[in-house]
Specification:
Distance between the termini: 34 Å
Oligomer: single chain
Strand content: under 5%
Largest sheet: 2 strands, antiparallel
Helix content: over 70%
Radius of gyration: 21 Å
Shape: globular
Order of helices and strands: HEEHHHHHHHHHHHHHHHHHHHH
Strand order of the largest sheet: 1-2
Structural class: mainly alpha
Number of domains: 1
Length: 429
Amino acid sequence: MKLLPIILSLIIIICLIGSILLVPKIKIKKLEFQTFWLMAMVGAIVLILFGCVSFSDLKESFLSDSSVNPVKILVLFVSLSSLSIYLDELGFFSALAAFFAKRFSKNQYVLFFGFYFAISLLTVFTSNDIIILTFTPFLCHLCKKNKIHPLPYLMMEFVAANTWSSLLIIGNPTNIYLAGFFNLGFLEYFMDMLLPTAMTSLTGLVILFLLFRKDLKTPITPNPEEKVELKKVPLVVGLIHLAGCTILLSISSYLNFPMWIIAFCFASSLIIFVIFYSFFTKKNEVFPLLKRLPWNLIPFVLSMFVVVLALKNSGFIEEIATILLSWNPVFSFGYSGLVIANLINNIPMAVFFSSLLTNAPLSAVYSSILASNVAAYLTPIGALAGIMFLNLTEKQGLKINFFTFVRYGAMIGILSATVGFMTIWLLPI
């Protein structure tokens, strides 16, 4: 093995963890930057300058016709995000949250399970990040207003969103990457992941209820509901785009049409509509939509892909793959996925595992995908959603520190992931 790429990659990972924990953001005058992607980008540049990754490697990876091309995957994810963000900008998710709050506000048990159902359902057809961004401020406000303990609801939201995100390919960028790498079709993926996701979710829900059952006994004093006005025409257009995109993605393998092109076409169509609608209403609704798109993921994913290329060139990946394949692949790749995702984040973990899983059985691929989703609630480092979640709760005046998050999240994550891995192991995949 070549030691230089391994040493440099290790330093980059340590610096990345440090930036997330110690200095998540930096401000230069009025501009604010998240450090995780800056650190990753600097690390990628260092690896290229030291010759650990050649320009021919980069050209082959970023310009290839393969479905695993990171550029195509990013186009797919950003495009899908635009559909969900647009609906969020219209207030659609807030309106749904208010609806469920009204219908399930008789007692906390009903409210708790009602929101779990709503969040789970919405996550399946949007993404975990969008749900976290939307529901976290709402739940904080709801709990403050009704004088109930917010932690059960916030942990429930986070667990639900990051469990049910594994059900469909489009639920998480890690799903998109790993499923694309192994050419898994939309429906094939759904059928194989349905039972493991359901069992993981059920386990997590039971543990959540047992942990917070005393807090949920407190009665609720109903407050006047807050009305959310929705613009009918933009809402219908947005829902049609989301539904149409999801349907076509589900049959993309039968159409022999790449998923990233389908998503890009729907996103482009929606943005064109928003431009024309803004022109006629004389309200700039394009900029808020474009501003909220996950642009920081682009340099982050591309940079971490460079790190993985460096490790691959060093021979390190082959050595790790040999060790993991010598044990039960479902559990070895699953548990190692949980650990690695919480060292380097779940997106680079997915990129790293795509090379490790080359000779592994399909069941190991699914356990790795499940791990990349569940890893989000072991520690805040496990996914970008965790970092966003802590920032959002702090802005709402509810400081959920790192150790409080780990205290609940790790217990729920390890137990529910174990049930999920066992389900995958028992299935004839």
